[in-house]
Amino acid sequence: MSEAVTRIRVGGSAGSEPYEVLVGRQLLGELGGLIGDRVKRVAVIHPEALADTGEALRADLAEQGFEAVAIQVPNAEEAKTAEVAAYCWKALGQSGFTRTDVVVGVGGGSTTDLAGFVAATWLRGVRWIAIPTTVLAMVDAAVGGKTGINTAEGKNLVGAFHPPAGVLCDLAALDSLPAHDYVSGLAEVIKAGFIADPVILDLIESDPEAARTPAGPHTAELIERSIRVKADVVSSDLKESGLREILNYGHTLAHAIEKNERYKWRHGAAVSVGLHFAAELGRLAGRLDDATADRHRTVLESVGLPLHYRHDQWPKLLENMKVDKKSRGDLLRFIVLDGLAKPTVLEGPDPAVLLAAYGEVAE
Ligand SMILES: NC(=O)c1ccc[n+]([C@@H]2O[C@H](COP(=O)([O-])OP(=O)(O)OC[C@H]3O[C@@H](n4cnc5c(N)ncnc54)[C@H](O)[C@@H]3O)[C@@H](O)[C@H]2O)c1
Ligand SMILES: O=C(O)C(=O)C[C@@H](O)[C@H](O)[C@H](O)COP(=O)(O)O
Ligand SMILES: [Zn+2]
């Protein structure tokens, strides 16, 4: 696929403002235009690992005439806490941030989830722009307006739907990403393949080793296809009243594992185990054919993603899953497949079937 800039439109229905996701290289020149003329202040929220990037962005924006502040937050999930959100609110307050000012979140999904949440809550909502720097944030977290933080009780339990004004996916950012973080993002790419676009799976299976690096021949296509899957879904169901639940494929168990690991596991790694579990659940519930269920294991394993989790943790995981956002009262609900690219909801599965599915995942 060419290195030209691809523009993917998101939203525009049900009262939400449409915006674009740009994918390409050297996109930062687009930022000033996205921020707009009448804006006085810009806050650049970035993780420690991207201190240089955050400062370079701040300096560039200051040169363009904005009052720009950089707000450094911890790396990864440590940023998704009420304390860090409060730290950001303090920084916005101290810089006199008003309703016409703009937040920029640059980093992985943890940073964009936090930055979006800070933007959603400051003065009850200011504009924000996402500059995702991981595969996972480009294909999933930065697109669609789910923002939020974790609590000790569970993943993303506090948040808001607050779509960004634009998303800039600069593929050059992926060159500095640690290999395990690159691979972890592939779990959401593979998820998009199973729920909606099997060409994604074909591309990865054609050369799994190449899919593990940003230098692979299909990097841009894999990212763009996954963004289109997400864009299509959130454009028709921003607030998850139905269709959007399919994006949660593999996430019911994944979030339970993340909480169990006190958010030290990468989200993508947990999603990989969760996808394996969801495939086995679909198979054992009589919904999914053996070949498609097996394909989950082979494709995830081929790029080096984990499939298993500790056998003795099932009672805790079951407890954790009760606060999943898809639960209704005491009813557990899972996304499973009726076939390739045919996601559906499985409500209140037999506990014995759930346990048997976990038996396939347990190590
Ligand atoms: N809002 C959504 O719709 C949505 C969707 C999927 C995932 N998420 C959330 O995204 C988070 C996971 O995001 P992630 O996988 O991007 O990980 P991450 O944001 O936790 O980042 C992983 C690590 O990589 C560092 N990093 C980021 N970009 C880098 C780069 N270019 N070079 C070097 N280091 C870099 C980060 O500082 C961090 O240390 C989870 O909290 C998950 O819940 C949200
Ligand atoms: O955008 C969505 O909707 C998703 O479910 C995408 C997921 O990949 C993502 O991890 C999301 O943050 C999970 O949301 P949650 O509502 O289950 O916390
Ligand atoms: Zn996810």
Write the layout of secondary structure elements.
Blueprint: E1 6-10, E2 19-24, H1 31-35, E3 41-47, H2 51-63, E4 67-73, H3 82-94, E5 102-107, H4 109-121, E6 127-132, H5 135-141, E7 146-151, E8 154-161, E9 166-170, H6 179-195, H7 199-206, H8 208-211, H9 219-236, H10 251-260, H11 267-284, H12 290-302, H13 314-321, E10 333-337, E11 343-347, H14 351-361
Parallel strand pairs: 2-9, 3-4, 3-5, 5-6, 6-9
Antiparallel strand pairs: 1-2, 7-8, 10-11
The protein binds nicotinamide-adenine-dinucleotide, the ligand O=C(O)C(=O)C[C@@H](O)[C@H](O)[C@H](O)COP(=O)(O)O and zinc ion (ZN).
Word description of this protein:
This protein has 14 helices and 11 strands. 50% of the residues are buried. It starts with 5 loop residues before the first strand and ends with a helix. It is of the alpha/beta class and 363 residues long. Bound molecules: nicotinamide-adenine-dinucleotide, the ligand O=C(O)C(=O)C[C@@H](O)[C@H](O)[C@H](O)COP(=O)(O)O and zinc ion. The ligand O=C(O)C(=O)C[C@@H](O)[C@H](O)[C@H](O)COP(=O)(O)O is lined by residues 140, 144, 146, 155-156, 188, 240, 244, 247-248, 251, 325.
